[in-house]
Amino acid sequence: MAGIGKVLKLALFSVLGLIGLFVVVAVVANISTRLPKPKTASTVPVSPTETAIRAAFKETRATNIIVGLDTLSTNPVSIRLRLQYDLPEANTNFVLLDELIEGGMKIIRSVSAAPEFSNAASFLLLPRTMMTDKFGNQGWVEAAKINLSRETVQQIKWDNMYSTRFRELVETEGNLWLHPTWER
CA 148 to CA 158: how far, in whole Å? Predict the structure, then answer.
């Protein structure tokens, strides 16, 4: 009989222990629902300019985007929008050149339509990429300079524009400098 009493006491303590654990869990859960939610990235306000830049680069693989606004005149206010960005390495220089021209076309199309840059008189793109020189040294270099005026950009029918035509347009109506790798 003494053995049954010990078993009953052990069972009683086990049940009380489980009830106590349940109460503790319920209290902690109740407290955690009352705590303020941490702020997430989506609650941080984003400027319209930053939103326009993000939209412009959405369809490219560009990283490390640096935006510059150069004052060209003060009366009326006229600026040049300068966008420097890095392009990841591609399989070949030919693929990278196509991506550079195609990406430049998409970026200029997007930023020229953004109201935040309505006073931009010209658009200058400065893409950089990782290249290997003739000695085998790798480093980030300026891959191109693409510069177009707003007047030229406003005349473009974007639905009929493709990368080869865009490159020709920049060469004739704007300024296009390509890294010597692509001049061959």
Answer: 14
* CA pair distance 23, 67, nearest whole angstrom: 56
What residue type is assigned to position 180 of the chain? Answer: P
Tell me which amino acid residue 125 is: L
Answer whether 0.90 is exceeded by the pTM: no
φ, ψ at 133 (rounded to 5°):
-80, 180
Task: Give the model confidence (pLDDT) of 57-116 as tens digits.
Answer: 777 778 788 788 788 777 777 888 888 888 877 655 666 788 888 888 988 988 888 888
CA separation for the pair 115, 135 (Å, rounded) = 46
Strands 175-178 and 138-142: unpaired
Half-sphere exposure of 29 (CA within 13 A, CB side): 6
What are 10's strand-pairing partners?
none
One-letter amino acid of 163: S
Long-range Cβ contact pairs of 133-142 (< 8 A, separation 24 or more):
140/86, 141/179, 142/179
Residues in the chain: 184
Cβ atoms of residues 104 and 146 within 8 Å: yes
On whether the CB atoms of residues 70 and 159 are closer than 8 A, the answer is: no
Q: Where are the beta strands (DSSP E) in the chain?
A: 63-74, 77-87, 120-132, 138-142, 144-149, 175-178
Look at the block and give the residue holding tokens 């109201």.
115
